[in-house]
# Entry
Amino acid sequence: MPDFIQGRQLAQSDKSAKKTAMKNTTISGYTSPAKWLHWGMALLWICSWGVGILATHWRDELNPHHQLTILHKAVASTLLFLIVLRVTWRLMNRPPELPASMSPLMKRGAMIGHLLLYVVALIALPMSGWYWSSVADKAILVAGLFLLPPLVTPDPELYDLAKYIHTWTAWCCGALVGGHALVALKHHFIDKDETLIGMLPGNGK
# Structure
């Protein structure tokens, strides 16, 4: 068989193999509402988390009149309402399948990681902040629009406990969100699948 024919067949074989590999690493995109909820809530969460750190650890320098605390509460409290919308959308719209190249163990880890993000970062953290403010008898103005009712009766004796719970939940959430971002980058740059691309605006449904 002439060399040029063999070379052509090899090229076609390589092309076919690449297509097969892409099928194993490609996932369908998320719906547009899911993407906007994901990135919108991520932006709100990161801003709230950062402002909360500044308000707490640089209180005298940056937060003498508690303006950062008020901003932190106004932003963070919106997550309590957005998570209801997000979970409702998730239940009504099945997320895309994970890449076939992922092992069953990795898929289970992804499921657990997403569950922790929902429960700890989007529910437990704002709820613990609401609890702390209620114990301290401090108001929460949601997005500058309306006040949240107190979650519990004010109790100065529980102040330190409430602060401890919210503070350590915040640090745990920071680790969770940071790990989530690193895994997404690993999918894109090392595994070279479309997990991250599927969540970017402008792709998918």
